[in-house]
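Summary of Year 1 activities. Much of the first year was spent building the evaluation harness for sequence design. The harness presents a backbone, in tokenized form, and records the residue chosen at every position. We chose the following record to illustrate the format because it has been used consistently in internal testing since the harness was completed.
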């Protein structure tokens, strides 16, 4: 097979895939760089926003900045399993620490002081996971005491590397929660440990990334979390940055396609500036134009929306009950569905258009379920929003496909 053009489709829709050009985010980079200038860690970061705004991508970009500024970097996803117990979150931290410490030789005198090995041993002891776990296990006290002590030992050894500090960057942090019914508080432990070691002058910086439910959850666990973190809400791109994300990846002499001004504006309009949707629509547009260059000059809007519905929205929609779908269908028809809405607004509209209206208490219960399903979130002002961008438009398209006209407002 002969390949006539080596320029490949540059657009990369996917969870956490780095785009060919990272548009915008100048203020977020500035915020992160400011955190790296701290000698004593007073501020950490919560990076939050809806799905598809590029949180994971930005976190990866932060990694390069941190390493270039003489910081060590630890990164991972926080799974629900991590949240099962205090022991689990401790093991998560020790496992991640071992990645950067496993080549460090710990001083024998230091090991002797903690009673781990006889001082006369002639073999070098590397600070690998087994050593960290043994230090942790042999330390008396609660899990938090064990973890704090182990981190102090680690920092004494990391000092020899002449690094500014260590960034702990955890994605999907909204999965972490306390389990009061089981008397397990992994989220509280994480916050307590970092507050303690930072107070002791250890430059370990904590970056947590997650859905907008994350920040309220941290404050609920420990009220001091509000003073411990700088919250950065990652929003959609503005029109200029969206344009850059669309055009710059194909500004190459070898690129076989070009986009008209109308096509660029169509992509901006359909995507609403959300980075994932820009990548998805641009990828589909690129392939379509490449295969139909003789007949097609514009963005195939209907076809792309149909594929977007199938690939991105339908799976989430299929996991909820029919009654939950009815509620979301009412919400999608609110004038402010793309922003924030209240329970009372839903009640009022349901009385007008639903065959079986919803009461305040019923809506509240269902919103909690939809919150757990990752479709709705609640802010501190008791207002709600879709946790998935453009979900309301998807729902309206479902109404249209069923030939059921939405309420005209």
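For this record, the design step produced the sequence shown next.
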């Amino acid at each position: 097979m002969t390949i006539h053009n080596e320029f490949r489709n540059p657009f990369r829709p996917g969870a956490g895939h780095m785009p060919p050009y990272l548009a915008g985010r100048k203020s977020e980079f500035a915020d992160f760089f400011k955190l790296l200038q701290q000698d004593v860690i007073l501020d950490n970061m919560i990076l939050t926003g809806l799905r598809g705004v590029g949180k994971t991508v930005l976190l990866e970009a932060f990694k390069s900045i941190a390493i270039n500024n003489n910081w060590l970097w630890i990164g991972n996803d926080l799974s629900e399993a991590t949240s099962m117990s205090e022991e689990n979150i401790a093991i998560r931290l020790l496992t991640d620490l071992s990645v950067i410490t496993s080549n460090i030789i710990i001083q024998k005198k230091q090991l002797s002081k903690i009673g781990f090995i006889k001082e006369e041993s002639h073999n070098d002891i590397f600070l690998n996971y087994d050593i960290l776990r043994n230090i942790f296990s042999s330390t008396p006290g609660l899990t938090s005491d064990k973890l704090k002590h182990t981190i102090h030992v680690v920092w004494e050894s990391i000092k020899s590397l002449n690094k500014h500090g260590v960034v702990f960057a955890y994605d999907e942090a909204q999965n972490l929660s306390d389990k009061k019914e089981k008397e397990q508080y992994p989220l509280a432990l994480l916050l307590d440990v970092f507050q303690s070691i930072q107070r002791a002058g250890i430059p370990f910086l904590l970056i947590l990334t997650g859905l907008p439910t994350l920040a309220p959850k941290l404050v609920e666990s420990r009220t001091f979390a509000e003073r411990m973190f700088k919250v950065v809400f990652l929003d959609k791109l503005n029109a200029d940055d969206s344009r850059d994300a669309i055009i710059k990846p194909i500004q190459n002499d070898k690129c076989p396609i070009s986009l008209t001004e109308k096509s660029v504006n169509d992509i901006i309009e359909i995507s609403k500036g959300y980075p994932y949707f820009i990548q998805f629509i641009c990828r589909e547009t690129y392939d379509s134009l490449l295969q139909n260059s003789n007949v097609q000059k514009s963005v195939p809007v209907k076809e792309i929306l149909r594929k977007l519905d199938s690939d991105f929205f339908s799976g989430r929609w299929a996991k909820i009950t029919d009654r939950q779908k009815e509620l979301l269908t009412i919400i999608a028809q609110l004038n402010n569905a793309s922003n924030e809405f209240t329970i009372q607004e839903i009640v009022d509209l349901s009385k007008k258009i639903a065959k079986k209206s919803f009461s305040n208490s019923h809506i509240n219960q269902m919103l909690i379920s939809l919150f757990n399903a990752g479709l709705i979130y609640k802010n501190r002002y008791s207002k709600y929003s879709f946790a998935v961008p453009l979900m309301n438009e998807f729902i309206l398209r479902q109404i249209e496909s069923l030939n059921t006209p939405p309420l005209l407002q």
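The beta strands are 44-48, 71-77, 105-106, 125-126, 165-171, 204-210, 229-233, 376-378, 384-386. Quantitative recovery figures across the full test set are reported in Table 2.
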